[in-house]
Design brief:
Carbamate kinase, Archaeosine Trna-guanine Transglycosylase, Chain: A, domain 4, eight-stranded mixed sheet, five-stranded mixed sheet, about 15% strand, binds glutamic acid
Length: about 375
């Protein structure tokens, strides 16, 4: 049964985003593993030769910088991390280039910051560039632009970045290559007999808990960030496979639909492009807390969010900005484009249409967020 599902997922994956973690590419001192990179390049070439479009999201810039500069370990503060990334990114790209050129594949470096995803025009530009690179048969290699990203504008980790790229391109498959075999029911460091989950139909809280709080030494991710990324992509209707990038030929095996790693199945339906941006990509500029009635209307009845159901307005947003909608327990239930600025939302919250009419004459919009601009998002903390 599982094998059939896998085969189906693999056969439909005409475009794939592959994310490679620092620990797959470099040793703990930050020395890039040339033969591993060559082997990945050979496999990428085979995947592309089969007619699939491939985007690589590669970590390893900071790690490689640590190695090149002979620092021994990852620095703790931002300027030193940024300097390491500047040194390491070019070394990383050089190795990819050297490994792919023999296959006749040109590499294309794309460095992104979170701001590129918040702004819809820039977001679409990234998409256009990647699609044009496909036209040239070049391989886009994406990383965060670490040298200019400061804490407020950081994606946080490349797992998240890879999930956003997957959603941006509507790629049916995201592969997260890390240095563990997949998601285990328990931490395998504590229990060597822990069960490796072959398939996760839906990422719920029990799955999140399995991820624990692991973090890697040279990279910034860990199991938790992988599960969060997997949830972002599966919530938008794509599949995710997490597998061990340190195992020889792992990508060949994934594309032969062998039962390696953990497959996360899409949750629900394919989400339209516009809603992916509103619900899962742009960072909300504010928050609306709603009462139980409004929660029901939005989550269960597919209705718009009316001012009367809003109890608290937070943040400094303008009309048209993405805002987050939370219930009384502070759980995020939706995101959408606000019809009102924070200032005006504060004036109309908790009021009925009639009360708003008394206050303002005719209100410009009856809804605070119209249903068409509202995305009910996957529930449960990650
Ligand atoms: N952008 C970072 C780098 O290339 C990695 C972030 C991560 O490990 O997720 O080193």
């Amino acid at each position: 049964m599982t094998d059939l599902v896998r085969k189906e997922v693999i056969s439909r994956a005409n475009m794939v985003v592959i994310k490679v973690g620092t620990n797959v590419l470099a040793n703990p001192a930050g020395h890039l593993d040339r033969s591993r990179i060559q082997s990945l390049a050979d496999q990428l070439h085979r995947i592309r030769s089969g007619g699939r479009k491939v985007v690589l999201v590669s970590s390893g810039a900071i790690g490689a910088g640590v190695g090149k500069l002979g620092l021994g370990k990852r620095p703790a503060d931002l300027p030193h991390l940024q300097a390491c990334a500047a040194v390491g990114q070019s070394a990383l790209m050089q190795l990819y280039q050297e490994s792919l050129i023999p296959h006749g594949v040109q590499t294309a470096q794309i460095l992104l910051t979170a701001g590129d995803f918040d702004n819809r025009a820039r977001y679409l530009n990234v998409r256009n560039t990647v699609l044009t690179l496909f036209e040239y048969h070049a391989l886009p290699i994406i990383n965060e632009n670490d040298t200019v990203s400061v804490s407020e504008i950081k994606f946080g980790d490349n797992d998240h970045l890879a999930a956003m790229v997957t959603n941006l391109l509507r790629a049916p498959l995201l592969i997260l290559l890390t240095n563990v075999d997949g998601l285990y029911a328990e931490d395998p460091r504590g229990n060597p007999n822990a069960e490796l989950l072959a398939t996760v139909p839906h990422i719920d809280q029990s799955i999140t808990e399995m991820a624990g709080t692991s973090k890697s030494e040279l990279g910034t991710g860990g199991m938790r960030s992988k599960i969060r990324a997997a949830r972002l992509a599966t919530a938008a209707g794509e599949s995710v496979i997490m597998a061990n990038g340190s195992v020889d030929g792992i990508l060949d095996r994934v594309f032969a639909a062998e039962p390696v790693g953990t497959l996360f199945l899409p949750h629900g339906q394919d989400v339209p492009a516009w809603k992916r941006w509103v619900g899962y990509t742009a960072r909300p500029k504010g928050k609306l807390r709603v009462d139980a009635g409004a929660r029901r209307a939005v989550v269960e009845q597919g209705k718009s969010l009316l001012p009367v159901g809003v109890t608290v307005v937070e943040g400094d947003f303008r009309k048209g900005d993405v805002v987050s909608v939370c219930d009384e327990t502070e759980q995020e239930i939706a995101r959408g484009l606000s019809n009102y600025s924070a200032h005006d939302a504060e004036r109309i919250r908790g009021r009925s249409k009639e009360q708003i009419a008394t206050l303002w004459g005719t209100a410009p919009y009856p809804e605070l967020i119209h249903r068409d601009n509202l995305v009910v998002i996957a529930t449960g903390p990650v």
